[in-house]
């Protein structure tokens, strides 16, 4: 067995041929990537920038399209759309009161009115 191992090691031409085939196989299967992109399926962890860094605080020109998009997204649904987009928006879409709120109208406004006995009872209840 020892003689066989010496014979395998001593055959340098055979070893060189094996290494050459391995090298050529690696060259065939390797592909050099020069364009890199972010995997869309993987969660990206952003790192916050330093607040006092000079290159992070450079003024950039305002992008009008981006600003319009942000302002449109910040608006409420009644300002964005002329009518409801979902069934849930139908509730409360027309939020103006149907009848103008007149404070003097006794039919719609029931204010708390105290008389002698109700004032006495309210003080008694507030004391516990």
From TrEMBL:
Transmembrane segments: none annotated. It is found in: Cell projection, Cilium; Cytoplasm, Cytoskeleton. InterPro entries: CFAP144 (IPR029214). Pfam families: FAM183. One of its GO terms (cellular component) is ciliary base. It comes from the Eukaryota. Residues 75-99 are annotated as: Disordered. Keywords: Cell projection, Cilium, Cytoplasm, Cytoskeleton, Flagellum. Belongs to the CFAP144 family. This is Cilia- and flagella-associated protein 144. The lineage of its organism: Eukaryota, Metazoa, Chordata, Craniata, Vertebrata.
